[in-house]
Structures are given as structure tokens and as C-alpha cells.
Amino acid sequence: MTAKTYTVDDLAGFDVIIDARSPAEHALDHIPGSINCPVLDDEERRIVGTTYVQVSAFEARKIGGAMVARNIARHLDDRFRGFDAKWRPLVYCWRGGMRSGSFVNVLRLVGWDAQQLKGGYKGWRHHVVDRLPVLAEALQWRVLCGPTGSAKTRVLQHLARLGEQVVDLEALAVHRGSVLGEVPGQPQPSQKGFETQLFDVLSRLDPSRPVWVEAESRRIGRITVPEALTEAMFRSPLVEIVAPVAPRVDFLLRDYAWLVESPEALTSRLAALKGLVANAELAEWQAWAAAGQLVPLLSALLARHYDPLYARSLGRSWVQRAAARQVMADDLSAEGIERLAERVAREA
User: Fold this and answer.
1) What is the DSSP letter of 152?
2) Domain of 59: which CATH number?
3) In angstroms, rounded to a whole number, what is the distance separating the alpha carbons of residues 237 and 66?
4) Is the same domain home to 195 and 327?
5) Is 131 within a domain?
6) Domain of residue 52, residue span
7) Sign, CA torsion 271/276/277/278
8) Whether 162 and 206 share a structural domain
């Protein structure tokens, strides 16, 4: 066996991709499908770094070397015991340096054709940043728009079941894209993690077929949508769901079940609207939320906040707004959404 140079273009040729970085680094972002087998855990990495700064590079390498040896031995015993001689792993760390190099050396001594990813995670990150704009520009976007509560995300999910190509940005961002959009108990990914997931999804799509996406602003919660994608969306054909307020309120009551279950959280969340609506109006909305009076609250939110915001956003950015094809929706029940998705699909 000889060491060769492998880049992100060679990932598919390996049985497993091993991320040798710390758990915190892996959690922030990682190559899709990679497994985290740290040669230094978070606390060990801190100790080695502190020793490097406060004592010397030699002492840091001596302490770190013992830690790395113990951790690699544990991975051999726990994670890799069942693999035969033909198993072929690719290992990466931050820059393709000592951490992944040490791991590869041990794996190769065992007899496996282990290889090191050139450039490590930084090489992967550069690949994502360079390729995302190319992928975004190459795809045939169809943008589904409509006011808050018009079941756009559910329609996207049914479009996917119908065999349409779909990118669900809110699912990737773990956020519903509004002041009430935080998903209870589920933190948003890091910006880098979001972009990696988005890249992974876009790279699997067929550019010869339309791709459906929901109209979004440049930010979804604290996540920023890459500029190349937002610009491509702004130029793309629009299909608009048009629905009356009453079925939208009914839909929101079902789709945002936590509103019913946690009036305290809803009252607190509404505080984000301070300065955007009159203080007296906000106080009334928060009183409705605290009392669990959700129908008047949601009706007011749609009429006084969300619908004007939607009208302004479409008028500002979406080039093909005037040519948007409208699909009427009086029924946003589960069955009604299925029928709505079939009608939207015909607009592709």
C-alpha cells in the first residue's frame, strides 16, 4: 500500500469517512455521512492547546501524543474490531494535519488501505462554498409563495411524495421562518452545517427537471440563505397559494400545536414584535395569548402583521411577481392540502 492524494472528489471511493476532530467540531459541521472518532476529545484538545501556549510545543505534543494513542487504541477496539482486511477508510481532521495523519498511520500499520483527505475539513468547506453558487444557478427553480398559514411547507412535502424535486429550506434550517417559527426543543444548525446540508441536497438534484422551493427571505431564524440561492429564487417563476383567513387560522392551530400547549411561551415569543406594531396592540395580543384565545390572536396577527409583511416582501424582491400563477385554496385540511399539491404540481 502507498499513500496517495485524495480530495473531496474521491469521497465515494471509500467504505467510511472518519472525522478525527473533536465532538464539538464535528457537531458544528462535518462531511455528510462521516463518523466522529476523535483522537482528542473537547477537554483533551483544550488541555493540549493550553499546554502549547503556557508551557511549550514539545510538552503539548508529548501530552497530546499519549492522549491520541489511547484514543486511537480505543477506536480500534470499539469501532473497527469487526472490519476485514479489505476495509478502506478515509480520515480527515481540520487541515489534513497531525490528527488525521496519526490516525491513518496506525490504521495502515494494521493493514488497512487508510488514506488522508487532502486539506481536511477546510478543503471540504472551500468545496461547499465554491460549489453552492454553481449548483443554485444551474437548477430550474419553481417558487411556491403565499401568505402565512397557506400550508406551503405541507404542500412541498406532498409535492415530494408525488415525485417532484423539492428543497425544504425551513426543514434544513430547523425554523419556520417567522417570529413564531422556532421549533420547540430543536436548536438550529450552525451556518456552516446548514450550508453543508443544503449543498448535499442540491448536489443530488437533476438540473433538467424543475425544483420546488418555498419563498423565503434572506434569513430563516438566525440562518442566512446563501446569496446565490436567494438571487436565483428571486428571478424564478412563482406559484402563489391564495387562501382566505379562516382556513389559514384553522391550519395554523393544527400545524403549530405548541401554541395551544404553551400560552406562556407564545406570550414571550410575541415580545419580538415590539417596535413593529403599536404597544397597545401588542399588549392586547399578548393578553389573548396568555388567555389561550388563539383564534382572535391569529386572525389579528395575519391581518395586521404577516399579510402586510408578505405583500411588501413580494413587491420588493420577486422579479416575476406580476406573472405569478395563482392557485385558490379554500380547504387546508389534510385532504385539501393533498389536492392542492396536485394542482400546484400541474403548474410546474
Assistant:
1) H
2) 3.40.250.10
3) 59
4) yes
5) no
6) 8-118
7) positive
8) yes
- 3-state SS class at 79: coil
How many other C-beta atoms are found inside a 10 Å radius of the C-beta of residue 3?
13
**251: part of which helix (H) or strand (E)?**
helix 245-255
Cell numbers at 298, concatenated: 391569529
Residues 112 and 146 in one domain: no
Length in residues, the chain: 348
Q: Could you give the count of Cα atoms lying within 13 Å of 146 in the half-sphere of its Cβ? A: 27
Number of domains in the chain: 2
Same domain, 78 and 182: no
Catalytic residue among 11, 18, 39, 93: 93
37 catalytic per annotation: no
Claim to verify: residue 210 and residue 104 sit in the same structural domain:
no
Look at residue 126 and tell me if it is in a domain: no
Q: Judge if 82 and 152 occupy the same domain.
A: no
On whether both 37 and 76 belong to a single domain, the answer is yes
If phi over 0 gives left and psi between -120 and 50 gives alpha, with beta otherwise, what is residue 210?
beta
Per-residue pLDDT of the chain (348 residues; tens, 9 = 90+): 556 789 999 999 999 999 999 999 999 999 999 999 999 999 999 999 999 999 999 999 999 999 999 999 999 999 999 999 999 999 999 999 999 999 999 999 999 999 999 999 999 999 999 999 999 999 999 999 999 999 999 999 999 999 999 999 999 999 987 777 788 788 999 999 999 999 999 999 999 999 999 999 899 999 999 999 999 999 999 999 999 999 999 999 888 877 767 778 788 888 888 888 899 999 999 999 888 899 999 999 999 999 998 888 887 779 988 899 999 999 999 999 999 999 999 987
What's the rounded Cα separation, in Å, for the pair 271 and 285?
A: 10
129 within some domain = no
Cα–Cα distance, 332 to 315 (Å, whole number) = 25
The bridge status of strand 140-145 relative to strand 115-116 is: unpaired
Q: What sign does the CA torsion over 145, 150, 153, 154 have?
A: negative
